[in-house]
Amino acid sequence: MYFGLIALLTRALRLDARQLRNHVFRLAFVGFIYLSMLWATIWSSMFGAPGLQFFEHIVWLNVLFISCAGVGYFSSAITEEKEEETIGLLQMAGLNHLGILLGKSTSRLIQVILLLIVQFPFMLLAVTLGGVTTQQIIAAYVDLMAYTVLLANTGLVCSVVFQRGGNAAAVTTVLMVMHSVSPVVATAELTFLKASGWTKTNGWMSAILNSLEWIEESSVLKELTKVTTTGFNEPVFTKQVLSNIGVGIFFFGLAWLLFGPSVNNAAPGGTTRGGVVKSTSRMKFLSPGRCWVNPFVWKDFQFIGGGYLLFVVKLIAYLGLFAGIGGISNIYGSVLGFDFTRVGEIFFGCMLFAFVVESCISASRVFHDEIRMQTMSSLLMLPRSIPYVGYSKAIGCMLGLTPALLCLGLAVMQLNVTPEAVLRSLIEPAFWGVIMAFLVFLHLIALLSLFVKWGALPLAFFLMGPLSGCCPVAFAVASFGQRQAVDSWGNLPATITIWILTGLVCFVFQMMIAARLQELGTR
């Protein structure tokens, strides 16, 4: 019984130990840490405490990596088996539900934790650089591991409940955002209740206040902010560590409990694609309808962008977010330190984040279904060129981003900026330098999704830093972005140069994507 319980877990760990690419990835991560340490050493002649700067940079980089892994890696643990219809084969092999969860999810959790452990000896060099103590490093990595446990099992529950990886990734992202926002809401509620006369002398008041305090201290962002501050001297096992591990264990048990009903109630004949409404349902006005003139645009808008149903849902959700921020500013504005005039700024930041996340997820999925279902060869047999197919699929994904773009425009209108200021920002080299970095990042995600089965988003995130550091185009864009002319129109030549460089770099990436698609189609 116990051998069968850990059989899949043992196989996954052995396979990870024997694959060269996993060790190369860990080595590349250590190399990136070395480059960051070298950069901190160079800057130590101008700034104090280079060790603290290096330590803080790596810690927040790990937070972003683990968050990206939660979206693309942990949330696909079970959904990939559902999409390939191999869950039944695993059960026929004698694996029970717990064994499948340990083999598919816990193995991934161990791999990410190993990636954190391999950094630890190198991070101790930050103590030598100055400004950091060993206790800070230990506390930071304990916090990161606890956050990894929480995120891995949150993604596992979503992977068990949902049939498609895209839905599981979307819900995991929503839960991550709620986890990041809930401590802020708990802080405001605690301040309001204490100001209203609530004390811990009453039993039920004490329970509510203690619960809010635990929620307030459960944020890894808040805890790491403390850890990366000079003079940190607190226990390693904080409320954040205990709460994250406890909730993670609870989610694993919940996934174990829901695994049987979710698998037994799975739709026969494969999973459905996207939030597509059937033409026979009551909401048939949101059904895909007849295929458009360009079937590639229609297909990716419906199955990757979510179609009309998800279009309406996202639009309502974003507008509801705007209304929620406005309501919070009226109720807790004095407590949180912002009034109604800053609602536009906060909504703009939220919508910019939502647009970036949606764009990255769409870039990682634009060719995912064709690769997973092995239909690329059939697709290339159509009387259409590879650029036509690729650009059409990209347009279909961009149509799914329309709600975020509309609400982002609404947020810009709430910023109370003049048309002259908007025009000046549109010819700023620094603005277009950021746009170029984002476009290159999306192309890198799409390219990596053709090479790896999972993790294109976090892998692209970590490759973006070294590629930008050694690329002469990045240095050229940075130099142009730092130039500031006396007249705004004097920045126009530098802006045009960045436009040309952006087009050239994106063209090179598109050629690489086309070559990879051609290679996959000939297999």
SSE map:
Blueprint: H1 2-5, H2 7-18, H3 20-43, H4 50-72, H5 79-83, H6 87-92, H7 97-117, H8 120-123, H9 125-129, H10 134-161, H11 165-195, H12 203-216, H13 220-227, H14 239-264, H15 295-303, H16 307-336, H17 343-365, H18 368-372, H19 376-380, H20 386-400, H21 402-413, H22 419-426, H23 429-448, H24 456-470, H25 472-482, H26 492-521
Termini distance? 41 Å
Helix count from the secondary structure assignment = 26
Helix amount: over 70%
The helix/strand class is: mainly alpha
Report the portion of residues in β strands. under 5%
- SSE arrangement, N to C: HHHHHHHHHHHHHHHHHHHHHHHHHH
Number of strands: 0
Please give the largest β-sheet: none
Could you tell me the radius of gyration in angstroms?
A: 25 Å
Shape: globular
Flag low-confidence runs.
Answer: none
- The number of distinct structural domains comes to 3
Estimate the mean pLDDT confidence.
79
Question: How would you sum up this structure in a few lines?
Answer:
The protein has 523 residues and is an all-alpha fold.
Structural write-up:
By secondary structure, the protein is mostly helical. It has helices at residues 2-5, 7-18, 20-43, 50-72, 79-83, 87-92, 97-117, 120-123, 125-129, 134-161, 165-195, 203-216, 220-227, 239-264, 295-303, 307-336, 343-365, 368-372, 376-380, 386-400, 402-413, 419-426, 429-448, 456-470, 472-482, 492-521. The chain has 3 domains: 1-265, no CATH class; 273-416, no CATH class; 417-523. The protein starts with a helix and ends with a helix.
Task: Please give a handful of descriptors for the protein shown.
mainly alpha; 523 residues; globular; single chain; 3 domains
